[in-house]
Specification:
Two copies of one chain form a homodimer. By secondary structure, chain A is mostly helical. In chain A, 64% of the residues lie in helices and 9% in strands. Chain A contains eight helices and four strands. In chain A, a hairpin with a 7-residue loop joins β2 and β3. The radius of gyration of chain A is 22 Å and the shape is elongated. The mean pLDDT of chain A is 91. At the A-B interface, α1, α4, β4, α5 and α6 of A face α1, α4, β4, α5 and α6 of B. The structure holds a DNA duplex.
DNA sequence: ACTTGCATGTAAGTGGTTACATGATTGG
DNA sequence: CCAATCATGTAACCACTTACATGCAAGT
């Protein structure tokens, strides 16, 4: 899932500027399974333009800086569908949290508790975001991507079990941690 | 979760060679949430040695090439615990599969079905691996990491919902796809 | 004869991120 | 007055992957 294909996927649905694409990645409907920074989006877009997969036009706005709006071409649509037909790459799940959990017993119990609560909060925040997007989609269901609901529900369910796992089994991890006595002792 | 910390985490539990560390990442108990290649492990280990966080000894074997076994030092253990105390980085979930699902309606129904089955198979394979590791741990429960069970269950539950989501809602995605008639029509 | 597994390592390439440079406008 | 939002872009850097180089032994 390179940024190039990501841009094509967004432009497949609507025209957009680099700035808008970035926003969609961090806040939009697919925020929880893709991400990209300006430093990768802008070069990707100009490369796509060189290859004729998108075209651009500059739109002047008053009060705001002008923006460069990219539109996908027929060649771009074809290239995107071709990319989708390729075998699907492996999903990547890299979890600093699980690394922490695996070695929690080395740390003081109160730190473990703090980190676990932070993790729950993070999952809740993501779940809230998905709910918000779902609500928005219910409000104006005009000609939108038919599978967005499907993807959103998938994410919601995965995040929900993760959250539930965490809350119901928190205490076990905390209990594995060091008491403040043991930590003080180790420090001697 | 850089490879450096990954190496420290493994060496914290047992001494190992670069080759063995690689195997643990691809097959071992944490295979489903970390990964690393030789090209990153070997340089990381020699850098760790330069910094005095690990030491190494060469072990000659007959019939097999000699191996360089790395052992963590006290400084290494401290550095690792210090790293664990840092705020936990965000979990990364990059999903080419969800990108595919989101745009499945652009593709022929039979291709969608094929890809979905592949994805189920992949999830099943990962679940099998976890079960196998769990079984191994039940067989010889000698002084092993107390939180491995916790992490394994977490992964198992997350993968299981993903699998169940997929199997129960497969047909919706397939139905959104193009019939072979429509595809033939589009090709004209 | 060929592949697989064991074992170490390097060099080139990739696919990004972070930080910087720039600048106008709005809101607190 | 400062921060944030809108908006584009580049350059330096980073962490990692892929492919290559090497070699021996056991299994198929």
């Amino acid at each position: 899932m390179n940024v190039r294909t990501l841009c094509l996927s967004i432009l497949h649905e609507r025209e957009a500027s680099g700035y808008e694409i970035r926003k969609m990645c961090t806040e939009g409907e697919c925020a929880y399974f893709v991400e990209a920074s300006y430093g990768s989006i802008y070069p990707a877009l100009s490369r796509l333009e060189d290859e004729g997969l998108v075209t651009s036009r500059v739109e002047h706005q008053d009060g705001k800086p002008s923006k460069k709006i990219y539109v996908i071409t027929e060649a771009g649509r074809t290239a995107f569908v071709d990319a989708l037909c390729e075998p699907i790459g492996e999903d990547v799940f890299r979890s600093p949290f699980l690394m922490f959990a695996r070695f929690a017993h080395l740390l003081p119990a109160d730190l473990i508790e703090k980190r676990l609560k932070e993790q729950v909060a993070r999952l809740d925040a993501k779940l809230d975001e998905i709910s918000k997007i779902k609500a928005e989609m219910d409000e104006n269901p005009d000609g939108q991507n038919p599978n967005d609901q499907w993807v959103l529900r998938y994410g919601q369910n995965c995040l929900t079990v993760a959250r539930d796992e965490l809350t119901t089994h928190m205490l076990e991890l905390i209990a594995s941690g060091r008491t403040s006595d043991a930590v003080a002792h180790a420090a001697e």
